[in-house]
Amino acid sequence: MPKKYTTDKEHKDELLSALPDFARAYIRFFSHDAQERSVYAYMYDLITFFQFLIRSNPQFRDRQTWQFTPAEMENLTAMDFDEYLGVMRDEGNQASALRRKMAPIHGMYSFMQSRDMLKFDPSEKVKVKDKYLDNEIVYLTLEESSTFLNYIKNREIGPGERKNQREKEKLRDYAIAALLLGTGMRVSELAGIDLNDIDYSTNKVTILRKGGATKHVYMSDTVANALLDYTEEREFIEPADEDAKNALFLSSQRRRITTRTIENMICRYAKAVVPYKHITPHKLRSSFATAVLHKTGNIAVVSAALNHKQLSTTQRYYSKVLDEDLKEAAKNSPV
User: Fold this and answer.
1) Is the same domain home to 130 and 152?
2) Torsion on CA atoms 239, 241, 243, 245, rounded to nearest 10
3) Where residue 36 sits, what CATH number does that domain have?
């Protein structure tokens, strides 16, 4: 049951208390000439964004929404915002709604710059495009996915690279890419996996879904074998801290791997294999969705696997696959 407030001020004060100092200052500035409903919408959207950062970045996992600092805001990257937009889109938000959700974020950054709280605005180049978000789905085909994985697995160690370290990272990177492509999980969900979350007897992985719910996803034998190869090497790595002791994937600093490290890694490999496509971890999720739809034609299965709240969100993938099937049918027509 929704909480009841005695006064509007009580409600507003509670929302403000969930925001960091710099965000509260921005909301007070914004309130001077904004309608009250817009102020509430901005507070809710900023809280949602901070909650996303906590869920998607293991380094913030023990953080409260009001504990972020200007320095941490400045250190975010465009990929953090792209991932946020991807998650919001998965919840059924179209381009117009995504623009509204980015408006308070852009406004907050602009306010912080004007008050000398930061020098750089990482959200500045993040734009919501109608065609990209509402129609075009970028993904790897089955052939491209295979080439992508083989490149990571068989990549030669370049001059100047530490051979032993890079060989271990190849096993880790291959396992990460295979798990993303093979299950469709979000990069934040992957970064949060612990060693005891893997059940090799059933090829089941326990993950913490967006919103805090614990769910199970299943992997193929190929993905399971990639994880086994990596974990054999993982046993010889001494974790740098308590959290890393349980983490499945470790960074080169022997700490739990971050979403940013995964994003940079996926983008780096993708540029080498498919430079004509902008591939991010979220695009690997799209690759999983289209591959399963091509194979099963079952939109409900894909919706459940992706943890979409609304079937209409998954419908975008179905429309893409149907369009491709119609093109193929035309090629095989009798005339």
Assistant:
1) no
2) 30
3) 1.10.150
What DSSP designation does 31 have? Answer: G
Work out how many domains the chain is built from and give that number. 2
* pTM of the predicted structure, to 2 decimals: 0.66
Other CB atoms within 10 Å distance of the CB of residue 194: 15
In terms of domains, do 103 and 216 share one?
A: no
Catalytically annotated residues: 186, 210, 282, 285, 308, 317
Cα angle: 87, vertex 243, 54; to 5 degrees: 25
Query: 74 and 94 share a domain?
Result: yes
Residue-wise pLDDT for 211-252, tens only, equals 667 888 899 999 999 999 999 999 888 988 988 899 999 998
pLDDT at 293: 78
Q: Are residues 209 and 128 in the same domain?
A: no
Most confident of 149-153, 160-164, 296-300, 323-327: 149-153
CB 179 within 8 A of CB 185: yes
Instruction: List, for residues 275-324, the tens digit of each pLDDT value.
Output: 888 888 888 988 888 888 777 777 777 777 777 666 566 666 556 555 65
Q: What is the per-residue burial (b if ≥16 Cβ within 10 Å, else e) of 47-58?
A: bebbbbbbbbbb
Structural domain that includes position 210: 142-283
Tell me the residue type at 60: F
